[in-house]
Amino acid sequence: MIHESVYELRKSVAGSVRVSKGTVQVVDAEKLRKQDIDVLVRDAVFGAKPVKDYARWLIWEAGQALDARPASVHDFYISRADNRWQDRTVPAMNIRFTTYDTARAAFRAAQKTNAGAFVFEIARSEMGYTDQEPMEYSAALIAAAIKEGYKGPIFIQGDHFQVKASTFKKDPEGAIKEVKDLIAQAIPAGFWNIDIDTSTLVTLEPETLEEQQHDNYTRSAELTKWVRDLEPEGVTVSLGGEIGEVGEKNSTPEELDAYINGYKKVLAQLGDGLVGLSKISVQTGTSHGGVVLPDGSIAKVAVDFDTLKVLGDRAREHGSGGAVQHGASTLPNELFDKFPEVQTLEIHLATGFQNLFMDHSAFPESLKETIYRYLDANNANERKSGQTDAQFYYSTRKKAIGPFKPELWALPEKAKEELYQALEDQFVFFYKKLNIDNTKELVNEIVKPVEYHQPVPASARVAGDDLGLAD
User: Fold this and answer.
1) Range of the domain at 14
2) Would 461 be classed as within a structural domain?
């Protein structure tokens, strides 16, 4: 049920969450967890704008009260540079579909394994085709934590906040403004971890690496200054840079040096004492989503772990926590324990979760066929010459996640039980393989989430007893 008014929503959850003069109080945490958080998150995702905004605000404020708070992973990553911990790789997990239920599975896996060092993320491009703006995404994650009784920092990351190279060539300032506008929307929503991706601006024509990386490090520093001016008091947003576009040629230590040295020089010119990067993304042989073969299987990829280790060591010499590996979720399972061995700081996992979900036997075949017919009708222009149906559907089905959001949220209960158990098992697998099980206490020791209250939305009334529903 979606509420048609703020009043109806407030009345529905008054037994667990009360509002008086703009302050939210959780009066029955158990009722909120068992029942009312489901009501709030559905309104936060599917409600009309006034109801949606109010539900998201209630979820955020309830999370503040129940210690389910967004946080920055910056201090945790910098502590790796100081060798306070090692032999662990933090999974950054792109949750594209059914964010609430999928994140619930991730939190259950964390509780099973006592994990605390994991990140939820969504890329700029994913926000578009999955129809998830920053405030909706963070609301779904916080609601999932409340539902599962998870307490502690929630690391929410903007993945590939990328400058579009084609736009930059025609209108450099306009291309940068697009990313600045997204950052300004994301930070108030709790995206206190952001991957600045200006690697699309690297050009290989100049003779020197410094010239090749010039636009990359200059614009990366500019966006860093923008973030530092916007971040809440007491929060140091964790920022990542990138030296080479994923799927292109492998990165080198010399490229990393050229990028970070240029970045530090420009950043110092932009202001005194500006905090820099906590990590650097590199390319070592993978690609986003993997390479799908004509029969629908995924091609084997050779990850250059030696280069990954060298780049991570070099990144730490420059004061960051280390190197980041993108495009890894479709790699063979036996490779994942190699990442902690070579001291990879963070690894990005995305398409593998989508594959597990949509290719699982419990996923309704009729819905899959409907999705594929939709892709035939609406995404035919993306079919490459010689592509098989399996290749086309594999590469484009992510584009159906937004249009089919209601159907995906409303899967039959039996199917949901099997699907989210499979996802929970997969999260447990990654937490253990990447050696971030039993990191809860370490994270809590290093990371201190800041209490941050969002402004009351315009749909709220804050005078008197606020709709007559306060104590």
Assistant:
1) 6-65
2) no
